[in-house]
Automatic annotation (TrEMBL):
Region feature (Disordered): 1-21
Listed Basic and acidic residues bias regions: 1-12
Superkingdom to which the source organism belongs: Bacteria
InterPro entries, per database record: DUF3052 (IPR021412)
One Pfam family recorded for the sequence: DUF3052
Protein name: DUF3052 domain-containing protein
Length: 145
């Protein structure tokens, strides 16, 4: 593949735009048959391995969290997700777009993220049915690298 093709893939692969990097361990929470399989495959392509599931028992670099309005309390789910990631890691919160079953109000996302101690880095459209909010954990005085 040429350098130009590599560069074009970076722009078109949503996983790269969302900040995923090769060799990251990415844990997936909330998987169901309604998730965006193309996005999952794009993330796996960038990181070079499969997403790990909710039973993964080590610390991940990032979490992909599929959340629908009827999945419980978003704040609780976010607090739990934080325990799975490295300090300074991120959570990609994926919620159904406006008008789709399970839609979550942006104000609810913002409130839950703030309560959980997260800050929203950016919101993006990640497919025809899902919107993503990249949430980051606060960085401490020292970062793990």
């Amino acid at each position: 593949m040429s350098a130009t093709a590599d560069h074009a893939e970076e722009r078109t692969n949503p996983a790269g735009r969302l900040g995923f990097q090769p060799e990251q361990v990415v844990q997936e929470i909330g998987y169901d048959d309604d998730v965006d399989q193309e996005l999952r495959e794009a993330i796996e392509e960038v990181i070079g391995s499969d997403l790990v599931d909710e039973d993964y028992d080590d610390v991940a670099d990032a979490v992909v969290l599929w959340f629908r309005d009827d999945d419980g309390d978003l704040t609780d789910v976010l607090v739990d997700a934080i325990t799975y990631i490295e300090e300074g890691g991120s959570i990609l919160l994926l919620t159904p777009k406006t008008g789709r079953d399970g839609y979550v109000e942006p104000s609810d996302i913002s409130e839950a993220a703030t309560t959980a101690g997260l800050s929203a880095a950016k919101s993006v459209s990640v497919g025809k049915d899902w919107s993503g909010s990249r949430l980051v954990t606060p960085k401490g005085a020292k970062t793990k690298r």
